[in-house]
Write a structure and sequence with these properties.
By secondary structure, the chain is an all-alpha fold. The protein has three helices and no strands.
């Protein structure tokens, strides 16, 4: 996927209007404010998916 990987990590610091942005983990942030409590975490296997370039764009 084009937005996955090192390239995407370089774009926000270069072009962001918020140069002081610090990445954070949303779940940890919500838990630290007692707004969320994770009971369990579950992962799923990837599902093969194909789409045409026209549909992608």
């Amino acid at each position: 996927v084009p937005w996955d990987g090192d390239l995407f990590k370089k774009i926000p610091p270069t072009y962001s209007t918020n140069q002081d942005f610090v990445p954070y983990n949303l779940v940890e942030e919500l838990e630290s404010r007692t707004l969320f409590h994770m009971k369990r975490e579950k992962s799923a296997k990837p599902v093969s998916f194909q789409q045409s370039i026209d549909d992608y764009v």
